[in-house]
Specification:
This protein has helices at about 20, 35-50, 55-80, 95-110, 115-130, 135-155, 215-225, 235-245, 250-265, 270-295, 300-305, 340-355, 375-390, 395-415; strands spanning about 360-365, 370-375. The protein is mostly helical and about 425 residues long. The chain has 2 domains: about 30-155, Phosphatidic acid phosphatase type 2/haloperoxidase (Vanadium-containing Chloroperoxidase, domain 1); about 185-420, Vanadium-containing Chloroperoxidase, domain 2 (Orthogonal Bundle), CATH 1.10.606.20. The N and C termini lie far apart (about 55 Å).
């Protein structure tokens, strides 16, 4: 490395994570207002993981995969129409699927959040009280406990909460902490977690960012410099709204959309178990592959790139040490975009589950009141790819390759998991 010093410049940086991580999210409908225990325990997981524990999007996505993977195996063991994820505990078709879902979710959430055991026990008591007593409930509960324990065994020592620090560099194009002492917990360990579905996350490695000396890089540099500036005169009001809307906690935002779709489509208990299981197990592997690729490419963020453009050996880029992005820059590498990895895997899974891209849905930002409406799943990922540039936090290549990575993970899952029993 050439050892270029980090330039001193004023940045609007959060010490540990971006605005996309810290926006509080509204509580979904209470458990007695939903039709089944898959949705009830999805609500409990949302409240406990995202609102109470304040887990960042990639962390919450991993833990929701653990919860919903266990729920899927429990309910599917009774329903029997699809292949299991991990296990198919012995079950009778007349066992209560609701009891199985509640017991499985409770089992893994107590393991994930031992300090919340009393609250989680209360949730379980309420769930079981809503189910008629008898062998059906007891059988379902036993199946759920078995599925939960199988998940706990599978995820014990799986690499969560390991090394927090991405590799820094000081050559042109290499990621570095945004300012001295502000690297914080930047979730490098997410890329070290054992995969849920895919055999090796490295199989989804991207082709990487553009060379900083290239004309194509200079074009993307000018694009984000203009459209992503906090004081941009080229970004439209709708583009600003788009950037702010998709800066909501990504996992929370999508979870609210999932619940809306489940309710509007009237999914059954077994369908909900498969729906949420598919979505979160796929998303978890997309996030793991994404963060693994961030460490591999360790590419700098627009904030650093624009301040240090006089070191990139590209005559078409001009440095500006006063430039700031519209939104706070996350404290980890640019490439690929985590939001796009996560969201693209979700969009492809939604299309696969419903068998169509053409479904209408809307969502509202948790605190800003911004609502956006879509009539195709693909419209959402198209917006997110642009929104991260408008926010000033990603180069377009990071968004495009992140979206491609998420799609590839979903295609792998489509061919290997959640297959009908022949």
């Amino acid at each position: 490395m050439s050892g270029h010093p980090v330039r001193k410049f004023c940045v609007l940086v959060m010490a540990t994570m971006s605005t996309a991580f810290l926006v509080p999210s509204p509580v979904p409908a209470s458990a007695d207002e939903v039709p089944d225990q898959v949705l009830a325990w999805n609500q409990h997981a949302y409240v406990e993981l995202i609102l109470t524990a304040n887990q960042a999007p990639p962390v919450a996505a991993l833990h929701l995969a653990i919860v919903h993977g266990a729920i899927y195996d429990a309910v599917n063991a009774i329903d029997g129409d699809f292949e299991p994820y991990l296990v198919a505990p012995p079950a009778e078709p007349w066992y209560s699927e609701d009891a199985a879902a509640a017991a499985a979710a409770h089992e893994v959430l107590v393991w994930l959040l031992p300090g919340r055991t009393s609250q989680l026990d209360g949730y379980l008591d309420a769930s079981l009280a809503s189910i008629p007593d008898g062998p059906s409930k007891e059988g379902g509960k036993a199946v759920g406990e078995a599925a939960g324990q199988a998940m706990i065994t599978a995820r014990t020592g799986d690499g969560r909460f390991g090394d927090t620090s991405f590799t820094e560099g000081f050559d042109a194009g290499e990621w570095r902490a945004l300012a001295p002492g502000l690297a914080g917990n930047n979730f490098k360990w997410v890329g070290d977690v054992d995969e849920f579905l895919v055999p090796d996350a490295e199989m989804f490695a991207t082709s990487g960012p553009l060379p900083v000396t290239s004309d194509a890089y200079a074009a993307e540099f000018d694009q984000v410099k203009s459209l992503g500036s906090a004081t941009s005169t080229t970004r439209t009001p709708d583009q600003t709204a788009m950037a702010r809307f998709w800066a909501d906690h990504a996992t929370a935002m999508w979870n609210r959309i999932f619940r809306q779709l489940s309710m509007s489509e009237g999914l059954s208990v077994a369908e909900n178990a498969r729906f949420f299981g598919m979505l979160y197990l796929t998303a978890a592997d997309a996030v793991i592959a994404c963060f693994q690729d961030k460490e591999r490419t360790h590419f700098w963020r627009p904030l650093t790139a624009i301040a240090n453009a006089d070191t990139d050996d590209n005559p078409a880029t001009d440095a500006d040490t006063t430039w700031t992005p519209l939104l706070g820059t996350p404290p980890y590498p640019d490439h690929p975009s985590g939001h796009n990895c996560l969201s693209s895997s979700i969009v492809e899974t939604l299309k696969d589950f419903f068998g169509t891209n053409h479904m209408s849905f809307s969502a509202t930002h948790a605190t800003l009141g911004i609502t956006r409406t879509f009539d195709r799943f693909s419209q959402a990922i198209a917006e997110i790819r642009l929104a991260r540039v408008y926010a000033g936090i990603h180069f377009m290549t990071a968004d495009a390759q992140g979206a491609s990575l998420g799609k590839q993970v979903a295609k792998f899952r489509e061919g290997h998991y959640f297959q009908p029993v022949s």
